[in-house]
Design goal:
Blueprint: H1 5-26, E1 29-31, E2 41-43, E3 52-56, E4 60-62, H2 64-68, E5 72-75, E6 78-82, E7 89-92, E8 96-104, E9 107-115, E10 120-127, E11 137-142, H3 144-151
Parallel strand pairs: 2-7, 3-10
Antiparallel strand pairs: 1-4, 3-7, 5-6, 5-8, 8-9, 10-11
Length: 153
């Protein structure tokens, strides 16, 4: 038995309304807890180095595509991991100059970092908060105080 045309139009309109309402729901998604994670994954061997770079991602509220995008992290073009919620990354490095890159399908963000002997540099990573299916990465240098407040580092 065929459905009357008006019934198909009503169903189509209901589906359209539901589809348009989904982005509003997706905007309410939060990933990551509000509490800091002071235990970063450490890359580097040997005794505790005197110089390091710490990269972290804070909890975010945004579109599903924003919070689901995990930028790849590189140091001087070499992959060291990903920018994930609640998973800070500590790079033990000798003193020197480094290029840190956050990379997604839609672009890359670079920070040039100079690490002196005994110094720690902090970077906050994530994605740009703009409606996009493939958001661009974000990588910001922050002070030790900001990193301590945001990530407990």
């Amino acid at each position: 038995m065929a459905l009357p045309k008006t019934s198909m139009y009503v169903r189509a309109m209901k589906a359209l309304v539901l589809l348009l309402a989904l982005p509003g729901c997706a905007a309410a998604i939060q990933v990551g807890t509000a509490s800091p994670d002071p235990n970063p994954v450490t890359i580097g061997t040997g005794s505790e180095p005197s110089s390091q770079i710490i990269i972290y991602r804070t909890s975010e509220v945004g579109l599903l595509t924003q919070v689901a995008t995990t930028p790849a992290l590189l140091i001087d073009g070499r992959s060291v991991g990903t920018c994930r919620f609640e998973a800070p990354l500590r790079l033990r490095v000798p003193a020197g100059n480094y290029t840190i890159t956050a990379l997604t399908q839609n672009g890359e963000e670079n920070q040039w970092v100079v690490v002196e002997e005994g110094e720690t540099q902090h970077l906050r990573c994530g994605v740009v908060s703009a409606p996009s299916i493939a958001p661009k990465p974000r990588l910001d240098r922050v002070s030790e105080e900001v990193a301590a407040r945001e990530a407990g580092l």
